[in-house]
Amino acid sequence: MSFDGLFTKAMTNELSHHLVGGRITKIHQPFENELIVTVRAKGKNHKLLLSAHPTYARVQITNEQYENPKEPSMFCMLLRKHLEGYIIENIYQHELDRMIIFDIKGRNEIGDVSYKQLIVEIMGRHSNIILVERSRQLIIDSIKHVSYAVNRHRAILPGQKYVLPPAQNKVNPLAITEEDLLKRVDFNAGKIDDQLVRQFAGISPLLAKEVIFRAKLVNKTSLPLAFFETIKPIKENAIQPSLIRTENKDFFYFFPLKHPNGEIISFSTLSELLDRFYFGKAERDRVKQVAGDIERFIENEKDKNVLKIEKLKATLHEAEHSEQYKLYGELLTAHLYEIKKGMKEITVVNYYDEEGKMVTIPLDPKKSPSENAQSYFTKYQKAKNSIDIVKEQIKKAEEEVNYFDTLLQQIQSASPKDIEEIKEELREQGYLKSKGHKKDRRISNKQTPQLEEYRSSDGTLILVGKNNKQNDYLTMRLAKKEELWLHTKDIPGSHVVIRDSHPSEKTIIEAATIAAYFSKAKNSSSVPVDYTKIKYVRKPNGAKPGYVIYDHQQTVYVTPDQQLITKLRRQ
Asked: Reading across the β-sheet that carries 138-142, which strands appear in turn?
């Protein structure tokens, strides 16, 4: 776990530096377990993210954009009542626990001075955000309610006295000597990293593994040296926020870890590091919850069409033998006098073969000779007529598969709002039942899709469609005919438009990287991306949403780069 007690201490120091003395101006709750608190401090607005997400719980200053719901939750409205306009007096950590406490002062509705605490407990699925009246330590409310039936130690409910989580009785590693360290480690018991986690507060398995890695051959001499060297950055406040990227997993910490053996990317603040590490992760989790049913529906529809194609190809294979049926019918007609009713087959000379080879023709013993001949002529005619129909059905089924592939790709990079637009599209296409009145649907259709914006290195605006509604709006309505349009070559992906008729080569490469990132080839390298002017992009009559054809294109090859995407999104 990267967000351990020592990381929490480093983050508390960072938050204190930026936010203490600041005034809370706005509070929003964009998602069930997350709050955005806008704090005006030192002449600047800071967006403080408080998350009690079961997997991605954290506290940080964020630069990410979050869409707020139309109606605030009850907890959000309560926080606005108690905290908006208040001053953050202090931010501190409880011992070395993963808890950050905000001491907040202001005046209530009758003008009296009021003291509150906003307590963020970062404890995995037990994470919580709790508003407490400071003097009496009474809980005003919390983002999650916990009763004694769930937790015998304490209840987190309005009106209950706030009780700290159970004490773990561990030693503070920042206040020990070498002798204290050695007393608490049993070298004969092995698993030294596990012992460090059990004995010392704020140390996670990740940090313990770093200590062991630095100690190399662990003994009474090497372990203390490695231990104090490892925790030195937090003792001396020598923070170097670092993301460590390995083949299988990414890690983050307040200094560069050596044991994961990966690429190290440095950041100026811990908050920037967390924005980068969690980029898309928490939102993907939320989208997974929102889109679970619709994703299964799309996959089922795709599988139906894949199976349909297999059956149609088998039918086509059979139909392509139509000339053989015609041959059998003509040969039987020429040899009617040789056929007796009840025969199962007959071997005759093939007059159409230059060598005059013999051919064996299966017969239906229940039919007369002329009926057998007529049966083959009927099969011939039926097969001949069906070839064009079957080919057309295969084409349509393949278009359906491509369409559902595109939707599945869009879900992978969608926001919760994008999912709603995908559902609306499926209703309009008749795949899902429409809900609501026609009037409501007309209003919904008039809403302008919100496109994702990026800025290239030279400041050129780049727009991205994240679903078919956005793609159609961007390409067919918003973009001007001389502007540049990009899309991955023969790969499902987003439409990307550079709002410039003569962009620089670097801007084209950056826009192509965005197009590759928001495509099915997101995890590939050297992805082909076509680009052309909008005037060369057309939508065929009756085409599916998001489908276009184009010409006069050029192709560049790029490798999706999440770090570049993050940078361009914030410029």
From this structure: 58-61, 44-51, 34-41, 23-31, 87-93, 99-107, 113-121, 128-133, 138-142
Q: Is the pTM of this model over 0.85?
A: no
* Average confidence (pLDDT) per 10 residues, the chain, 571 residues: 91 97 96 94 96 93 86 95 96 95 93 95 95 96 95 94 92 93 90 94 94 92 94 92 89 93 93 88 71 86 94 83 85 89 90 85 92 91 83 91 90 80 88 64 62 93 94 95 96 95 95 95 93 96 92 96 84 59
Give the type of residue at 281.
Answer: K
CATH class entry, domain 5-142: mainly beta
Same CATH fold assignment for domains 5-142 and 173-281: no
Report the candidate in 492, 507, 506, 502 with the shortest Cα–Cα distance to residue 548. 492
- How far is the CA of 512 from the CAs of 427, 466, 507, 531, 555, in angstroms? 31, 15, 8, 8, 9
Q: Determine contact, residues 120/142, Cβ cutoff 8 Å.
A: no
Q: Where are the domains positioned within the chain? A: 5-142, 173-281, 284-412, 449-570
Residue at token pair 């679970």: 292
CATH class assigned to 173-281: mainly alpha
